[in-house]
Design goal:
Number of helices: 9
Helix content: over 70%
Strand content: under 5%
Number of strands: 0
Distance between the termini: 33 Å
Mean pLDDT: 80
Low-confidence stretches: none
Length: about 180
Amino acid sequence: MELGTLLYNRFLAGDASALEELVRLYSDGLVRFACMFVGNTAEAEDVMADTFAALIVKKKKFREEAAFKTYLYKIARNKAADVLRARKKTAPLSEQKDFRPSAEELLLRSEREKTLFSAMEKLPPQYREILQLTYLDGFSVKECRKILKKNDKQIYNLLARAKLTLKKILCKDGVFYEDL
């Protein structure tokens, strides 16, 4: 049984320290993942907090059809979509744009991560999402299929197109993608 599942089951059984361990284990990845959607760290941290709040409030018994991490990221994706919907409802049409992480956030990353992240920003949102899930967060195709609600062929095609587009962007910028 996966560590996340064990911790969540302990939390459901009344062990509050298990929730703290879950937060330590998954919070950074959830913030990075949510940031790909909402475009800034503050809102991404809110999405992460809302994701764990949903676990606390609903206390749903986890069905082990997929990994707990997949279940958690699916909740986060839905919470990020809620933020984007709320943003569209409240922002005037002229202010609705594709938000990007600030320069300060990029400076905190290593040179290698900066180069890759910069290239990934040029990708369409679906490509960024699939690369984030598979390469940065380590999800399998099966897990991505559940998170993104697509079939295997769609995931493989999306991943192939994302990698090809990223390769073209990196080559255009004078970066040899094998070095990354």
